[in-house]
């Protein structure tokens, strides 16, 4: 799979209504531009269908890149919460650029900073920021799970903080896993550093994965934003060693690394990181109730 | 936590008395042991006379998969009689749907608001890895789905009946818990099937510790209601693990579950009378054990404190004729309830565990003190079971990280 090589001019040709087009990101399977349509800024995502799987125009089978894009668009259309990125005015479309097939769609352009940059530039979150992050991400996970789907790629780089409201938004539903549909993946997908233990159990994941897998990844994000450290990287030199830690190592209590955290909040983060789904939270409501208890403790300044 | 009456044959007036005395908080009815119309009437009556009591109906559907069970009045109940004699091949998805519907429909339509919960049908399994455990899980999921569609105001308890052998190892326990905690239900009604029909208080220590952990994950971690049926003195340990209620009855086979309950009875003489001693965490024989304690001037140390103690104050042997089955049963509920309330008064699980440890240590000290006064106990009385429980509690603490 390759990232399509596109110029701003080519994007302008494909979407003539867009102005002020700029390339903003490339990676994975896509290249992303920003552009103004009808006075609003949107992200314009372009992907190249997987040539080894394209069966011609009359094929009823879609390649994995197109299928994933379809699922991403469908998930954005289904879910309605301010904490998930919204669909833009252009739905999933296909075209040819320089004789190469291209698929593209638009989504809301979130003005703000992702958590990676935020951690680098501003350091760890305050308790109130952590609780807010947890609430907003739990709303996003809940919205996706309503449709028996799992995000599978919750990580600091996929969480934006809106510049205007300070709300957190979960981006990139390209790896959404649908328990009620066929799997689009034949191996491990996602960002390994943020995998849940069950996400690595490829043979069993359909039976054991649910929203609690996303809660685990959120636990890693919260740990990082609370302490500045990843809970499972210590002592690991390779990805496989990180996998080993995710499966077996008990992370140090966040409170030990940052004493001003409340015991309750620290316990919540550790509980999200439990190896077994049964030891996390069985519903988003229970998780949110625990967060409210932290708020009511008066810890949140 | 409070104690519920686990009903069996010969209910008499015990339930009414226990509810009025406040030593039980509810009742679990047994269709095997009671005529259908009488059982339905009782549930109806309690719904009116004791609106705050928990009134439950254990469908005992598991008997349908046993070999020639001695199923008593169960055959009067359509959800059972239409479906008994079930082998492994009789649990396709469609059939499970049928069993679940018949069973929940019966409870929903017959008991209405007089029952506190609807209880799902289940089957017994011996291992978390065998196909029966998967069938039990499928029945649980189907029950939750069907209950949702029923729109019943009565919440659902998923019932499970698990052999103690299933807890010999932790193998697959965690996976089963992962699946179980996906179910959206009010809680679980769990029966631990004992391997032996000898019905001793002593449990195999490590498996019981794992069972405590199983309950802890469901209650303390996942906040389900968990009611453990056929429980006895070990109720206080289950409370320490977080269990919501336990149920116990008047016969020994209503205090610990074994399949002997569904097999032909070998008969035999009436059991000797026993006294329920909360300080000893056991039931010493009134004669000679309690009498010997009395003669050693230590009776006050082992009494549980109920009004019925007065019957034995002037010599257990002298009072024995008045220590009727009904009195014995209510005094037993009183003792278990007293222990349970003591633990319930504590606000944290750590405090409850410490209290459970203290109760066991005190009991062992008391046994030793009485032993030094030449009071001898039958092995069925104790104190070996307490040492087993201490190991169980250690196992539980290690698993739960407490």
Please give a structural write-up.
- The complex is a heterodimer of chains A (301) and B (402).
- By secondary structure, chain A is an alpha+beta fold.
- Chain A has 2 domains: 8-108, Phosphorylase Kinase, domain 1; 112-296, Transferase(Phosphotransferase), domain 1, CATH 1.10.510.10.
- Chain A is 36% helix and 18% strand.
- In chain A, a hairpin with a 2-residue loop joins strand 1 and strand 2 (30-37).
- In chain A, helix 4 (127-145) packs antiparallel against helix 6 (211-227), helix 4 (127-145) packs antiparallel against helix 10 and helix 6 crosses helix 9 (263-272).
- Chain A is globular.
- The relative contact order of chain A is 0.11.
- The model of chain A has no long low-confidence stretch (mean pLDDT 87).
- Chain B is of the alpha/beta class.
- In chain B, strand 6 (156-163), helix 6 (173-180) and strand 7 (187-193) form a beta-alpha-beta unit.
- Chain B contains 14 helices and 9 strands.
- Helix content of chain B is 44%, strand content 10%.
- In chain B, strands 1, 2, 3, 4, 5, 6, 7, 8 and 9 form a 9-stranded parallel sheet that branches.
- Classes of the chains: A alpha+beta (301), B alpha/beta (402).
- Chain A binds chain B through residues 207-208, 210, 276-279, 282-283, 286, and chain B through 174-175, 177-182, 184, 217, 221-223.
Q: Strand pairing plus helix content of chain A: what structural class?
A: alpha+beta
Poorly predicted parts of chain B: none
In angstroms, what separates the terminal alpha carbons of chain B?
A: 20 Å
CATH top level of the largest domain in chain B is: Alpha Beta
Sheet with the most strands, sense and barrel status of chain B? 9 strands, parallel
Radius of gyration of chain B: 21 Å
Strand order of the largest sheet of chain A: 1-2-3-5-4
CATH H level, superfamily name of the largest domain in chain A: Transferase(Phosphotransferase) domain 1
Q: In which range does the helix fraction of chain B lie?
A: 40-55%
Write down the Rg of chain A: 20 Å
CATH topology name of the largest domain in chain B, in short, is TIM Barrel
Kindly state the number of beta strands of chain B: 9
Number of helices of chain A: 10
Please name the CATH topology of the largest domain in chain A.
Transferase(Phosphotransferase), domain 1
Topology pattern of chain B, helix = H, strand = E: EHEHEHHEEHEHEHEHEHHHHHH
The tally of domains of chain A stands at 2
Shape of chain A: globular
Q: Report the span from N to C terminus of chain A.
A: 47 Å
Main pleated-sheet profile of chain A: 5 strands, antiparallel
- Taken together, the total number of domains of chain B comes to 2
**Strand segment tally of chain A:** 10
């Amino acid at each position: 799979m390759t990232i399509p090589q596109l110029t701003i001019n080519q994007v302008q040709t494909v979407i003539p209504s867009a102005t002020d087009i700029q390339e903003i990101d490339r990676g994975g399977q896509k290249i992303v531009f920003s552009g103004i349509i009808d006075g609003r800024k949107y992200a314009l995502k372009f992907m190249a269908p997987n040539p080894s799987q394209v069966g011609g125009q009359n094929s009823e089978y879609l390649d994995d890149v197109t299928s994933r894009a379809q699922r991403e668009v469908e998930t954005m259309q289904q879910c309605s919460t301010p904490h998930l990125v919204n669909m833009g005015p252009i739905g999933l479309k296909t075209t040819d650029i320089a004789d190469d097939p291209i698929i593209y769609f638009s989504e809301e352009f979130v003005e703000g900073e992702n958590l990676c940059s935020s951690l680098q530039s501003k350091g760890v979150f305050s308790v109130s920021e952590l609780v807010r992050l947890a609430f907003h991400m739990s709303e996003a996970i809940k919205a996706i799970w309503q449709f028996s789907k799992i995000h599978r790629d919750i990580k600091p780089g996929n969480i934006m903080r809106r510049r205007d409201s300070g709300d957190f938004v979960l981006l990139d539903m390209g790896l959404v896993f649908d328990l009620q549909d066929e799997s689009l993946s034949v191996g491990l997908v996602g960002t390994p550093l943020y995998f849940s233990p069950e996400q690595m159990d490829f043979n069993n994941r359909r039976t054991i994965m649910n929203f609690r897998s996303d809660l685990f990844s959120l636990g890693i994000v919260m740990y990082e934003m609370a302490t500045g450290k990843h809970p499972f990287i210590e002592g690991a030199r390779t990805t496989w060693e990180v996998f080993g830690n995710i499966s077996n190592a008990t992370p140090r209590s966040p409170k030990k690394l940052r004493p001003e955290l409340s015991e309750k909040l620290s316990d919540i983060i550790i509980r999200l990181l439990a190896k077994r789904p049964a030891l996390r939270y069985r519903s988003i409501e229970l998780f949110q109730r625990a967060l409210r208890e932290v708020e009511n403790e008066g810890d949140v300044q | 936590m409070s104690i519920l009456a686990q009903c069996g044959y010969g209910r008499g007036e015990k339930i009414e008395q226990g509810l009025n005395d406040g030593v039980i908080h509810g009742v679990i009815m047994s269709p095997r042991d009671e005529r259908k119309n009488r059982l339905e009437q009782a549930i109806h009556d309690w719904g009116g006379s004791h609106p705050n009591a928990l009134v439950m109906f254990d469908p005992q559907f598991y008997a349908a998969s046993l070999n020639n069970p001695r199923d008593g009045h169960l055959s009067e109940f359509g959800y059972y009689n239409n479906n008994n004699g079930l082998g492994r091949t009789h649990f396709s998805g469609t059939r499970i749907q049928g069993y679940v519907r018949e069973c929940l429909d019966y409870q929903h339509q017959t008991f209405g608001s007089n029952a506190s919960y609807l209880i799902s049908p289940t089957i017994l399994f011996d291992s978390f890895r065998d196909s029966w455990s998967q069938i039990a899980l499928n029945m649980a999921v189907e029950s939750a789905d069907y209950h949702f569609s029923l729109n019943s105001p009565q919440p659902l308890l998923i019932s499970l009946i698990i052999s103690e052998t299933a807890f010999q190892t932790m193998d697959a326990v965690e996976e089963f818990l992962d699946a179980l905690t996906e179910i959206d239900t009010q809680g679980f009604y769990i029966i631990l099937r004992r391997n032996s029909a000898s019905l001793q208080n002593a449990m195999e220590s490590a498996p019981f510790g794992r069972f405590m952990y199983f309950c802890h994950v469901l209650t303390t971690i996942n906040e389900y209601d968990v009611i453990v049926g056929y429980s006895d003195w070990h109720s206080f340990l289950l409370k320490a693990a977080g269990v919501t209620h336990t149920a116990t009855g008047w016969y020994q086979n209503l205090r610990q579950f074994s399949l002997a309950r569904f097999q032909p009875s070998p008969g035999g003489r009436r059991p000797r009378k026993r006294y329920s001693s909360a300080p000893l965490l056991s039931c010493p024989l009134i004669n000679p054990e309690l009498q010997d304690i009395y003669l050693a001037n230590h009776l006050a140390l082992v009494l549980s404190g109920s009004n019925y103690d007065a019957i034995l104050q002037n010599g257990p042997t002298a009072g024995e004729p008045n220590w009727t089955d009904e009195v014995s049963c209510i005094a037993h509920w009183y003792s278990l309830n007293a222990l349970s309330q003591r633990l319930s008064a504590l606000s944290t699980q750590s405090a409850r565990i410490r209290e459970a440890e203290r109760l066991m240590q005190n009991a062992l000290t008391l046994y030793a003190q009485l032993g030094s006064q030449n009071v001898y106990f039958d092995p069925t009385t104790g104190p070996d079971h307490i040492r087993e429980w201490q190991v169980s509690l250690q196992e539980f603490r290690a698993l739960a990280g407490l």
